[in-house]
Design brief:
Blueprint: H1 25-33, H2 44-47, E1 52-57, E2 63-70, H3 73-92, E3 102-110, E4 118-124, E5 130-137, H4 140-152, E6 159-162, E7 165-169, E8 174-175, H5 176-183, H6 191-208, E9 218-224, E10 229-235, H7 259-268, H8 271-291, H9 293-304, H10 311-325, H11 336-347
Length: 349
C-alpha cells in the first residue's frame, strides 16, 4: 500500500460546482433517531435577508472571500437572539442561562465554494473570549461526511440539522496551508511526527472516500506533550464525501497543495514505516467500526439507497477501486454508499 514514491503530486481536477443533494426520508429518520435533527430558531434562509455586506480582509490586506452581513435593526435583534440559542444548543443542550452573557459580534457570509456558509462569531461579555459556528444549507453528502468523520475518525463532530438547515461547530486548528507556510519548518517540531500524521490522515480519507483534502480543507491540531508536540490532521470540509469519480481525489498525497508534506514522507519515512502507519490506522478504523456497528450500518443503509453523485462518477470510481485493490467485487456496487461500505469491509480483511 506504500504509494509515496511519485516525483510530484499532480494538479487534481475537482468539480467546480458540486450539486447539493437533498436529505431524503431514510436519512432524515437516521438523523432523528440519533439526535441530529432538532428544531432551530434560525434557518439558513433567514440569514440570507441581509441588506448589504462589507468585504473582510486579513491582516495583510488580502480579500478572505468572506463578507460581513449587515441587517436592519429589527431583523438583527431577532436573528442574534436566535443565534445565541443555537450556540447554547451546540454547547449546553439548549440551556438558555448560558447565552445571557453572550453577544453576536458578527455574521459573515462566504462567497467562495459550493456551500456559501454563514460564520457566526459569538463573544463572551465577561472576558471577551470568542467562538465560532457555521450555518449552511443541509446537503446529504456533507451530512454523510460529517457522520463518517464522527464515527470513524479520532475526533468527534458536533452538528445539528433542521429541515434544510445545517449547523456545525467550529473545528479549531491551524489551517493546513498556513501550517505549511509558517509552521512546517519550526525547529521545535519533530517532522517525522508530521510525516506520520499525513500517512494516517491519507489512509482515513481514502478508506471512507472523503475527497478534496487540499491544504485549506483541513487543520492541524497541535497538542504539547511532556516530551514532544503531537499532531493530528482534521478535515473541516465535507462537501466532497463520495462525489468524484477519480480514485486519486480521495488521496490527499496527490494534491499539489500538500506537496511539502509529501516531501517529508518521502525523505523521512521508509516504505516499511509507511506500511506500518497505514496498518495502524486501518486497525483503529476497524475498532471504531465494531464499536459503532449498529449506527454505522444504519448510516450506510441510508447512504447505499441515496443518490449523492452522478452515475458516470460511480462507474469510474468503482472501476478504479477494483483495479487498485485487485478486487472485482467493487464492480458490483451500484451507488457511492455501496462503495463506501465495501471499502470499509476491505479494511477488516
Amino acid at each position: 500500500m506504500s504509494t509515496y514514491q511519485h516525483k510530484h503530486p499532480m494538479t487534481q481536477s475537482i468539480s467546480k460546482k458540486k450539486p447539493s443533494f437533498p436529505v431524503n426520508d431514510i436519512l432524515r429518520e437516521y438523523l432523528i433517531y440519533y439526535g441530529r435533527e432538532i428544531m432551530l430558531p434560525v434557518q439558513y434562509d433567514d440569514l440570507l435577508r441581509f441588506d448589504s455586506a462589507i468585504p473582510i480582509y486579513d491582516k495583510n490586506g488580502k480579500d478572505t472571500l468572506w463578507e460581513m452581513a449587515l441587517y436592519n435593526t429589527n431583523d438583527q435583534h431577532l436573528l442574534h437572539e436566535g443565534l445565541k440559542q443555537i450556540y447554547s444548543i451546540l454547547k449546553t443542550e439548549g440551556d438558555s442561562s448560558v447565552h445571557k452573557h453572550l453577544h453576536v459580534e458578527r455574521v459573515d457570509y462566504c462567497t467562495f465554494g459550493n456551500s456559501h456558509p454563514f460564520r457566526i462569531k459569538i463573544v463572551n461579555n465577561f472576558n471577551d473570549n470568542y467562538d465560532y459556528f457555521y450555518i449552511k444549507r443541509a446537503d446529504a453528502s456533507r451530512i454523510y461526511g460529517l457522520e463518517l468523520e464522527h464515527i470513524l475518525s479520532p475526533s468527534r463532530i458536533n452538528y445539528f440539522v433542521n429541515e434544510a438547515t445545517l449547523v456545525e461547530e467550529h473545528i479549531a486548528g491551524i489551517p493546513g496551508d498556513q501550517f505549511i507556510q509558517f509552521y512546517l519548518n519550526n525547529p521545535e517540531f519533530n517532522k517525522v511526527r508530521i510525516a506520520k500524521e499525513l500517512v494516517k490522515f491519507n489512509e482515513r480519507c481514502f478508506v471512507r472516500l472523503l475527497g478534496d483534502m487540499r491544504s485549506y480543507n483541513y487543520v492541524f491540531d497541535i497538542t504539547p506533550d511532556f516530551e514532544e508536540v503531537q499532531f493530528r490532521i482534521r478535515a473541516i470540509d465535507f462537501d466532497q464525501q463520495s462525489y468524484e469519480g477519480r480514485k486519486n481525489l480521495y488521496l490527499p498525497q496527490f494534491f499539489k497543495e500538500n506537496y511539502a508534506l509529501v516531501l517529508l514522507v518521502q525523505e523521512l519515512l521508509s516504505a516499511e514505516n509507511i506500511e506500518q502507519y497505514q496498518q495502524e490506522e486501518r486497525s483503529l478504523i476497524v475498532r471504531r467500526m465494531k464499536a459503532a456497528g449498529k449506527q454505522l450500518n444504519a448510516l450506510l443503509e441510508s447512504m447505499e439507497a441515496d443518490t449523492i453523485s452522478k452515475p458516470e462518477k460511480v462507474l469510474q470510481l468503482k472501476s478504479e477501486l477494483a483495479e487498485f485493490y485487485k478486487d472485482d467485487q467493487f464492480l458490483q456496487c451500484k451507488t457511492m454508499g455501496a462503495l463506501v461500505r465495501y471499502s470499509l469491509e476491505c479494511v477488516g480483511k
